[in-house]
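Continuing the batch. This is chain 6 of the set; chains 1 through 5 are on the previous pages. Same settings as before, nothing changed between runs. Recording input and output for traceability.
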Amino acid sequence: MSLKNNPTLKSSKIRVGLTIGDPAGIGPAIALQALNILKKQALFKVIGDRKVLSRAAQVLKVDLPPCELIDLNNVGGKRFKFGSLSAECGCASLEYLNTALGLLKSNELDCLVTCPVSKEAVNLAGVKFTGHTEYLGQQTGSNDLVMMLINDRLRFSLLTRHLPLKDVCHSLRPQAIQKNLLHTIQGLKNLFRIKKPRLVVCGVNPHASDNGVIGSEEQSILIPVIKNLNRRSGGAIIEGPLSADVAVSLAAKGRFDCVIAAYHDQALIALKLTGFESGVNLTLGLPFVRTSPLHGVAFDIAARPALANPGSLISAIKLAIKCTLNQKKA
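Output for chain 6:
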């Protein structure tokens, strides 16, 4: 069965755009597996390369699912290899993303799910690229985006993203933290239908500084922002700053709807320990819902696509559909 328009699917379903990411990574393999499982749950437009998807399908011994394919035909035939870093594939992955953004702008899609890209490959193609989140913000004119990371047990919003640890404290600015928390509250209300979200802010220092004994960021930055927002949070409750180990433990027990992490690994370690295969990256602050798996291109296993686990992408697609439906009801 080929990828094509399927008029039998109900038009009332959510229209999901799915980019295959770096064609040499595991994106094509996990996309095929996920679509074969979820093909009846939405109207899918896959943005990628037919030759690449056909090769992956042949190795996986699966059919190409009955979805519409936007075939950009932008990867060289004989030169192409799964698991190989190249500028050509970096350029192709960016073209998939730009095509999806055009479809969103023309209202042909309701939401976007992106398979992993290689930052290194895109930069090899001559484009300064630090990640999907930053690029989507630039292209849509959306400022102050929030990276919310989710699995079956926890939600995190990140105050800082891909920064060296030495730069984290200098990046914790009151206005940016306030915008992050407000975006998170709005996202929990609109995308998850949580009327009175409960947030907990992690301290940046060990033991949340022990009242200023181990650092000053909690007293000088975090506490004033939390107090200010609690006075005008629209029913949301913000606690903290708490030591990260305590905050995550309480959230895992159901006390909080979202943990606010001061830096990247404060969230990622907990997420991958408690549910790596269900992990999803959700971008808050865009004019549309966008999700992605919580892993990278995995070039090391891309030549053996049967090893690629589609669990995180399946969760990302399901979450994109759920959040889009909730957004339409908000």
